[in-house]
Amino acid sequence: MGSDTPDKRRRIDRIAAEDFLADIASADPATLRVLRDDCREEEARFSYNRRLLQGRIDIFNAEIDRRAGKSTESLIDLLPRILADDPAPRSSVVDSRNAPVYEPGEEAGRRSDDRMAADAMLSRLPDMTDEELAAELAEIREEERRVSELRRVVLEKLDALQAELVKRYRDGGIDDIVAAHPADSE
Fold first, then answer.
1. What does the pLDDT average to over 163-180?
2. Which of 10-19, 89-98, 158-167 has the lowest mean pLDDT?
3. Are 75 and 63 contacting, i.e. CB atoms less than 8 angstroms apart?
4. Domain annotation covers residue 158
């Protein structure tokens, strides 16, 4: 965080680095906000890709169940139920005004989770052998685990940055915080 030379690493590599929060106590509020926003954007990207991977896992599991005779419906007929989100309690409250919405852009597809979430493997699903199906499912599960772990790292950094901003606000540094982000005061 403290170097004056531009960091050419990918955003996730910068965020995941051990020294990402090294200067948090001395950083100005504007810098903290930029770092926090970077974390928010990465978290949104990981959440998006994680959900796509989880959907693929659900589809593969449904195909395995269908092949095992647990359902007589076609996979296409099962898709609406497979992909329906269960209303699950959220572990934390997300302020939707500040939460970025991930929209895949030019950078989409460069990272393994982007590629795995977007590839055409699902179109081959009916033609896969049971062994191919199991191998692909294992690969998807491993990628979902990796994405979840990276998302957890990003969330920890995001929480630390948010806590630092709240601490400064609470300790009377409101003038510095508002001055660093004048659009918020309008």
1. 73
2. 89-98
3. yes
4. yes
